[in-house]
Amino acid sequence: MLPAKLTSRLALNALRRIHHGVSYPCLYSSSNSFLQTEGGITREVSLRSVPSVLGRVFYSQSAVCPSLRLHQTQQYGRRSFSLSAATIVNSAPAPVQPYLRLMRLDKPIGTWLLYIPCTWSIALAADPGCLPHLGMLTLFGTGALLMRGAGCTINDMWDKDIDKKVSRTATRPIASGEISQMQALVFLGGQLSLSLGVLLCLNYYSIALGAASLSLVISYPLMKRITYWPQVVLGLTFNWGALLGWSAVKGFCDWSICLPLYFSGVMWTLIYDTIYAHQDKEDDVKVGVKSTALRFQEQTKLWLSGFTVAMMSGLVVAGINAEQTLPYYAVLSTVAIHLTHQIYTLDINKPEDCWKKFVSNRNVGLLLFLGIVAGNLWKERRESLLQNEEADR
Hints:
The protein is mainly α. It is built from 20 helices and five strands. Its cofactor is Mg(2+).
């Protein structure tokens, strides 16, 4: 495939031969048009009016650019910009970029899925009628970014040889040779040191609880070699924040709330990561890696439905024990509908559909967080109404 600059130059020359006057094609894949000046009049010409071969030259740039990037469209002298995680990585100095990609900074969905269970727990621990502790949300967001990066680094160090054999992972920094094992180890030490700094900002109970999760972080990459259920270990790891968030706010864990919430998070991980694993099932068979996608195969939707029922049951129990109110249960109904639709429409044999469904789980988690916040704010109103009724009596 031609480099983007050469492709744009060829397309520009071809357009000038086809159209009279001076044409200024937009050299970014997000644009579907170019500006043509003819007789002193500037007009926008759609690429769909250009012969198909030339159109493919322009659209070919989309295939080599990530979906998350800086979009720049020049139209009648105006430019619009959209910032993204991949843009930040691509704009960083070249020597730094492999390390940012190693911690998956260009793909923030994993950080979101690690962070969201923390927000549930922090929101549930808030006093009735109060918003979640903003400082804790910020602190846990920083910790999620660092620990997700550390987890990805550990995973890539373990899976270096496997990643080389899988097309989707062959370009990862360690597998491709951009970063050596020793450089990755030093980088891992830096991430864990910063993560420890975040953990030390919490109370002693939470420090001990957080440190206990490190064994899961280290062992998870090995599970895919041992069992068809590595997603269970991933769920235990990714949802540790459902325990840690509450303890960070309260100084202890209310297990009647934290355990059902943690269980629901694990079930949620089994749902979205099984969907994710269906993208790589053919390569997994070739390299001998196991997953729930290979375990469930054509019965995947049945299993995911069962996990959904278990997840919602755990959330109901956690809500009852936390004395949650109507908005919380209304949002639970919406989450259940979303997951049901997600599973019903899932095509496990289309990687692009699996990715779309997988990414949509960020919205599921954020929706549940908003439901917890709304339910907690409703508590104050409910208590005020009860007090007024008692006063009337």
